[in-house]
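About this split. The held-out portion is used to measure sequence recovery: a designer receives only the C-alpha cells and must propose an amino acid at every position. Recovery is the fraction of positions where the proposal matches the reference. Here is one held-out target exactly as it appears in the evaluation file.
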C-alpha cells in the first residue's frame, strides 16, 4: 500500500509554488528540452498530434518531479497535481502565473479565429 507520507492533497500553497517552480525548471533541463523539441517537431503544430506527441512527454517530465512529493507516478498523479494547483490559482496570483507558464510550455498558443466578435458597426449586410 501507499506510505503514510504520500499525502499530496496536504501541499500548502507555498509548497505548491515550490513544486510548480521545480516542474518548470525540469522542462528547461537539456535532456527534457530535447525531448520536448522532438515532440513539437513531430506534432507540426497540429492539435491532434500535440495530444499524441507533446502531452505524453510533458506528462512524463511532470511525473518525474511530482512523485517526490507523494503524487503517484502516472497520469492520475499529474491530474491530482493539476487539480491542486487549480484550487490555489484564484487565491494566489503567483501560483496562477506559474501555472500559466507551465501550460505555455506544452500547449500551443491559442489564436482567435479571424471572424471574431465585431467591434463597433461593421460589415453586417442590411
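Reference sequence for scoring:
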Amino acid at each position: 500500500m501507499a506510505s503514510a507520507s504520500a499525502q499530496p492533497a496536504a501541499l500548502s500553497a507555498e509548497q505548491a509554488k515550490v513544486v510548480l517552480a521545480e516542474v518548470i525548471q525540469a522542462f528547461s533541463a537539456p535532456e527534457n528540452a530535447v525531448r520536448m523539441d522532438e515532440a513539437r517537431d513531430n506534432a507540426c503544430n497540429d492539435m491532434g498530434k500535440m495530444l499524441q506527441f507533446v502531452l505524453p512527454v510533458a506528462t512524463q517530465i511532470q511525473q518525474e518531479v511530482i512523485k517526490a512529493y507523494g503524487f503517484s507516478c502516472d497520469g492520475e498523479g499529474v491530474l491530482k497535481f493539476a487539480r491542486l494547483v487549480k484550487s490555489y490559482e484564484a487565491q494566489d496570483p503567483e501560483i496562477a502565473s506559474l501555472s500559466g507558464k507551465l501550460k505555455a510550455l506544452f500547449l500551443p498558443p491559442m489564436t482567435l479565429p479571424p471572424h471574431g466578435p465585431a467591434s463597433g458597426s461593421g460589415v453586417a449586410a442590411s
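Annotator remark: The radius of gyration is 18 Å.
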